[in-house]
């Protein structure tokens, strides 16, 4: 018999963006901007306390679906959300995530912290950390493009 015990893990990623906290916040709070950096083909977002978000994309493994619920939103300061990740309809991680936006000399220090429950089989911690590293890099590219377009 296979051991399919759940595990729990956590990680934190920090990013320094040269943009002010309000500009970085807009990348998270605007449905159009979030869909752009999230890279989702199917994206719905109701950004408010109690609101939800659903994003999906397809790759060689099949359909990946992220379903999120927002629990706390403090404008330009903090987002607390819970989300699940599923592949082909099977949930394999459920997470509580906190995103903190802090002024850093006119720019923004963003701190993303995630606590997760991993339901095997799953890519678990490595998959979530890899995914969020790529997504936070995409936020930086979006902000840089917006800055270049307005300059």
Report the mean per-residue pLDDT as an integer.
94
Domain unit count:
1
Overall geometry comes to globular
> What's the CATH superfamily, by name?
START domain
Name of the CATH first level: Alpha Beta
| CATH third-tier fold name | Alpha-D-Glucose-1,6-Bisphosphate, Chain A, domain 4
Number of strands: 7
Give the helix/strand class. Answer: alpha+beta
Query: Ranges with pLDDT <50 over ≥5 residues?
Result: none
Spatial order of strands in the largest sheet: 1-7-6-5-4-3-2
Our count of helices gives 3
Q: What oligomeric state do the depicted chains represent?
A: single chain
Q: How much helix is in the residues?
A: 25-40%
**Gyration radius, in Å:** 16 Å
Sheet of most strands: 7 strands, antiparallel
Order of helices and strands: EHHEEEEEEH
CATH architecture: 2-Layer Sandwich
Please report which band the strand proportion falls in: under 5%, 5-15%, 15-25%, 25-35%, 35-45% or over 45%.
Answer: over 45%
Distance between the termini: 61 Å
Provide an overview of this structure.
- This protein is of the alpha+beta class and 151 residues long.
- The protein is 29% helix and 48% strand.
- The protein contains three helices and seven strands; from the N terminus they run E-H-H-E-E-E-E-E-E-H.
- The protein has a seven-stranded antiparallel sheet, covered by helices on one side.
- A hairpin with a 2-residue loop joins strand 6 and strand 7 (107-118).
- The longest helix has 27 residues, at 124-150.
- The N and C termini lie far apart (61 Å).
- The mean pLDDT is 94.
